[in-house]
Design brief:
Blueprint (H helix, E strand, L loop, with lengths): L10 H9 L9 E6 L5 H14 L4 E2 L13 E5 L7 H10 L5 E7 L6 H11 L5 E3 L4 H12 L5 H11 L3 H14 L5 H18 L3 H12 L15 H13 L11 H10 L2 H17 L5 H9 L5 H14 L4 H13 L8 H10 L3 H11 L8 H14 L3 H11 L1 H4 L3 H10 L3 H9 L9 H18 L2 H18 L9 H11 L3 H13 L8 H14 L3 H15 L4 H17 L3 H14 L10 H13 L7 H13 L4 H17 L3 H14 L4 H18 L4 H13 L3 H14 L3 H14 L15 H10 L6 H11 L4 H8 L3 H15 L4 H12 L5
Parallel strand pairs: 1-4, 1-5, 2-3, 3-4
Helix pairs in contact: 3-4, 5-6, 5-7, 7-8, 8-11, 9-10, 9-11, 13-14, 14-15, 15-16, 16-17, 16-18, 17-18, 18-19, 19-21, 21-22, 21-23, 23-24, 23-25, 24-25, 25-26, 25-27, 26-27, 27-28, 27-29, 29-30, 29-31, 31-33, 33-34, 33-35, 34-35, 35-36, 35-37, 36-37, 36-38, 37-38, 37-39, 40-42, 40-43, 41-42
Length: about 850
């Protein structure tokens, strides 16, 4: 079962080979021991070559050693375990010859008395060289020699995992790889070919040895229990184990080499394998041993046994909340082993959802809910509700809890309340909460869930003063719990949303950072937390940090859930708008306006809606969000217009009215901000800012009042909005000192803002100041007029005549447009203008 090894050599063999060079000055007496195929013969060939290279005659005797005489030089003896006693005694007598180097190679089994005596004599001169499994590094070096390049780590791992480093199998795999070529997928084909050959060779083993190997491959620990089918005494078993090790079929620890194990199980008749597997389960049960160590292997080998299935379910239950990916695999294996699929369907769905496999979780639950009786119904409902929430369809989450009913919701009442509040059903939320147990279980996750419900309810009952600390505590506890439960949202995300709406950017950032560090709610929650972290960075006027978090979120997700996709698109819009990047804003808006169609409005997705409301106004496409805004206002009315959630949307609507130059649309939202001022500090600041905008737009304002309003916006987390207000006021101020003061305020609040272009036409300083400082529009109204005429092919003079400005002013407009789009050539400018003007050029 061994083959020649031409490229593999471990460190111990290399050390022995190096000693040959000193053989002229000192004798080399050595024993080389190793299992079949460990490289003993090849090592002797290499030693012979080294001896001959230094002029030492070499003798390679056959089996008739006892009848031969040997001259001075070196004698190399292979397969000494196969020699008879006379031959071994003859070799032993040569150990004392001072003119003869002696190297003897043998397997650890069989080990007759004469060989033991010879080995002892040899080891008096130097420790025996034991050729054992190769290391990963040695395998990598050998693979590099075979394929002519550094092997992929996956290839090295494959060879190591399947062979355990046993040289004869490593050689086979690499030789097969060489024959097949190191193409993608070659490893699996290589393994199939080796398995076919091994299966044949194993069938040629003596029956007793084959049975012993099969018992070990199935999972019997011969030190504790021997299958009755073997009917061997202990001494005979020891001999068979030694023989198997001598043939290189067992690892040093006594386990069957993995690839040999697979070949045994696949080539032995199935009924024979099953009889051993059932015997193993019976034996372990009789001895009251846990089946967990062997359950997975037996299930993967195809055994269907209720005892194995139950053991796998217990293992999966143990890791469901902390390692959902592993739990998912274990539940699948349990089902394959005979477990009733419906009885564990809710747990399988929970594991799938927590692993980010929403589609799979939904399919499992769809099948489960088709029947009248749903096992583990509360878990199933929690999971289905979480799946709907992650898809951005919180109304279906609430409907799922209504289907369950208040009488059955019990400890899930806070989750039901969150879903119902999020969709505007305040009365339904109260019914659910009133049915919850007065004293729930005191576990970390259950306490965190109760605090989540309390915090969300507090957020609609008043200001953030009660909601935010409650949600922060919920986040801290959930992170400490280290579990991934089915939730409509993570407590850190809810806390961050409340903090953002309260203008507490630092608090939002610290909560999210702690949750990300603690891996709150597992990998499926990470993208949303990162996107919210990006939102905080955007609000803090740190666009680079925001983009870094976005990249991390998309990398962590692979494919974002619809709810998170909406957040991503709104972030792209917000960053482009704040960076005054017109082409990027056009592209981002087109993606966002499509993304929002996939996600109905709910309370916890108002943040991206508010950003898109402002962007839509800038793009003159507010009509695209009319239905979403109608839904949002209706939802907020059903909840009693809670200031924490309503005030930012009113502010976004104020900004939209300003951008579209529709002061009539501004009035009701400004009034709403004033009404909410008594309950909300943020509303008070925004109301003052709204009044300041009105005075600026009317052309009659007090610069100090405007500056105070702008800085107030910064204090509630709206630094960029404050910069826009100050910049716009500067553009309309008459006194140069007021202009300078307000521009300084704008730059202070938004350090990345640009100074007004030099050399601009003195008749239009206000328009240029607004555009350069605030990024108030993709293109100003005048620039859009110029852009349309450029696309019509007009020159500077013709453009000036068309809109009654001088050619020099036209030149300055075009220079600013080129700078804004960062283009060098006329063709690039035309492309960007077509993109920016969109349908206007059709």
């Amino acid at each position: 079962m061994t083959g020649p090894i031409t490229t593999l050599r471990g460190s111990t063999a290399t050390e022995l080979l190096a000693e040959v060079a000193t053989a002229r000055n000192s004798r080399l007496i050595a024993a080389v021991s190793g299992a079949g195929g460990s490289g003993k013969t090849v090592l002797l060939h290499d030693i012979e070559a080294e001896f001959r290279a230094v002029g030492v005659p070499v003798h390679r005797p056959d089996r008739n050693i006892e009848h031969l005489d040997f001259a001075a030089g070196a004698m190399l003896v292979d397969d000494a375990h196969d020699l008879n006693e006379a031959a071994l005694t003859r070799i032993h007598s040569l150990v004392g010859r001072e003119d003869l180097n002696l190297v003897v190679a043998y397997r650890p089994w069989p080990h007759p008395p004469a060989l033991r005596r010879l080995a002892g004599a040899l080891e008096q001169h130097r420790p025996a060289v034991v050729l054992g499994p190769l290391s990963r590094m040695e395998i990598a070096n050998a693979a590099a020699a075979v394929i002519g390049a550094a092997p992929a780590p996956a290839l090295v791992d494959q060879v190591w995992n399947q062979t355990g480093g046993m040289p004869w199998l490593v050689h086979r795999m690499l030789r097969t790889l060489q024959d097949e070529g190191a193409e993608p997928g070659a490893e699996s084909h290589m393994l199939r070919r080796i398995m076919q050959r091994l299966g044949f060779e194993l069938s040629e083993l003596e029956p007793e040895l084959h049975e012993l190997l099969l018992a070990i491959a199935v999972g019997f620990d011969l030190s504790e229990h021997v299958p009755a089918a073997l009917r061997f005494d202990e001494r005979h078993i020891d001999e068979l184990v030694a023989e198997a090790q001598g043939k290189g079929l067992l690892l040093p620890g006594g386990e069957v080499v993995p690839v040999v194990q697979r070949a045994l199980l696949e080539t032995t008749p199935a009924y024979h394998v099953r009889s051993f597997q059932v015997a193993l389960v019976d034996t372990m049960q009789q001895k009251r041993r846990s089946l967990e160590p062997v359950a997975r292997r037996l299930a993967q080998d195809g055994l269907q046994d209720s005892r194995i299935a139950e053991s796998l379910v217990r293992s999966a239950d143990h890791v469901l909340a902390s390692q959902p990916e592993l739990a998912s695999v274990l539940y699948d294996e349990a089902q394959a082993a005979g477990m009733d699929g419906r009885s564990i369907a809710a747990r399988r769905a929970q594991a799938a959802a927590a692993s980010g496999e929403l589609g799979r979780a939904g399919q499992i639950l769809d099948d489960l809910f088709e029947s009248d009786e749903v096992p583990d119904v509360r878990r199933a409902v929690d999971t289905f509700a979480a799946v709907w929430a992650q898809r951005g369809m919180l109304a279906h989450s609430a409907e799922t809890y209504r289907w369950l009913g208040a009488e059955k919701v019990r400890a899930s009442a806070p989750l039901a309340a969150i879903a119902m509040i999020g969709t505007g059903d305040r009365e339904g939320a109260e019914r659910m909460l009133s049915s919850a147990p007065v004293a729930g279980t005191p576990t970390l996750p259950s306490v965190a869930v109760r605090l989540m419900g309390e915090g969300v309810r507090a957020s609609i009952d008043g200001s953030a003063s009660g909601a935010l600390p409650t949600l922060i505590r919920a986040s801290d506890i959930m992170t400490a719990a280290g579990v991934a439960l089915p939730l409509p949202d993570s407590p850190a995300a809810l806390a961050a949303l409340v903090a953002l709406r309260s203008g507490e950017l630092a608090v939002a950032g610290s909560v999210l950072d702690a949750a990300l560090k603690g891996e709150q709610c597992g990998p499926a929650a990470r993208p949303r937390l990162l996107l919210l972290r990006a939102w905080v960075a955007m609000q803090e006027d740190r666009p680079d940090q925001a983009r870094t978090a976005i990249v991390a979120a998309t990398a962590a997700a692979g494919e974002l859930f619809p709810r998170d996709e909406l957040f991503l698109r709104a972030l792209e819009v917000g960053l482009a708008r704040r960076g005054d990047d017109a082409p990027a804003l056009v592209r981002a808006w087109r993606r966002a306006r499509e993304s929002i169609l996939h996600v109905p409005v709910d309370l916890f997705d108002l943040l991206p809606l508010e950003e898109l409301v402002v962007a839509a106004a800038r793009m003159r496409e507010s009509h695209r969000l009319e239905s979403h805004l109608t839904e949002a206002w209706a939802l907020l009315r059903r909840l009693g217009d809670p200031p924490l959630w309503a005030v930012p949307l009113h502010w976004a609507s104020v900004q939209a009215a300003i951008l579209t130059d529709r002061p009539g649309d501004l009035a009701p939202h400004a009034a709403a901000l004033v009404r909410a001022s008594s309950e909300s500090r943020t509303a008070s600041v925004l109301a003052a800012a709204g009044r300041a905008w009105v005075t600026v737009l009317g052309g009659k304002f007090v610069p100090a009042t405007v500056e105070a309003a702008a800085r107030g916006l910064a204090l509630v987390g709206l630094t960029w909005d404050g910069s826009r207000l100050a910049g716009h006021a500067a553009a309309h101020a008459e006194d140069r000192r007021d202009v300078a003061r307000l521009l300084a305020c704008a730059r202070d609040l938004h350090p990345g803002s640009k100074r007004p272009d030099s050399g601009q036409d003195s008749t239009e300083p206000a328009e240029a100041a607004v555009e350069s400082i605030t990024g108030d529009a993709v293109l100003s109204r005048r620039e859009r007029e110029v852009a349309r005429l450029i696309l019509d092919g007009k020159n500077y003079r013709e453009i000036g005549e068309a809109i009654f400005i001088s050619p020099r002013t036209v030149e300055h407009h075009i220079a600013r447009i080129r700078s804004r789009f960062d283009v060098k050539s006329r063709s690039e400018l035309l492309d960007q203008l077509r993109l920016a003007l969109g349908d206007e050029t059709a």
